[in-house]
Amino acid sequence: MEASRRATVRGPTFIRLLARLTHADIPQPSQPLSDRLSQWVDWTHSLTLSTALDATPLAAAPGERVCADSEAAECAKVRSALSQAIAGDRAFAAPDATPPRADEPADYSFFRQRYLALQQTMEAGVGRLRERLRDRLSLGTPEMARLAAVDQVMERALARRERALLGSAPALLGEHFERLRLAAQDDAAAAPRVETWLDAFRRDMRGLLLAELDVRLQPAEGLLAALRTRA
Q1: How far apart, in whole angstroms, are the C-alpha atoms of residue 203 and residue 76?
Q2: Phi/psi at 6 (nearest 5 deg)?
Q3: Residue 209: how many CB atoms within 10 A of its CB?
Q4: pLDDT tens by residue, 167-195
């Protein structure tokens, strides 16, 4: 009944998962996206963005062409590699043959460290992909080249804000870890082993990382869509 009274959270799977794991009531945005962006982009980036929008990009050299199919394959390759890096991380390794008992302390610091490491891996991989797509866009029409320039400015302008927001995920996940641990200690029926709640936590952590990967890849997918449209 308590869950049914909670407002439905809209947005990416990443946000909905965080809301579910933290039992948080997340209000719907009261401002349109453009207003929020105007608060996040400082005046120096605003000037750079204005320059990118007003500039007339150079036309691509004759004979240079963009193959959208090859870039789509590269995007799929990066997504697959990062997904495998998440799934294969040692945070999700099978427990030992003699797992600890439920009354033994479990430490979240290991999982936090692994989450942060995987975030760095995602940031680096997606950043390289986004740069590659911008390079391909710059070989297309002047409109495509302008889009590449705007995306580069927006990436720089929002990088600190994005890093801070996504960086809060491990702390929120830690609260979920503690709730599961305490619930297992209080539940006499679950007393024999800790692997049941730890397995549930690992599953939630893996799902949250994959959902975060989807969010991080959205700008690259937008650039790819532009390449496909103009190919």
Answers
A1: 23
A2: -75, 135
A3: 27
A4: 999 999 999 999 998 888 876 554 555 56
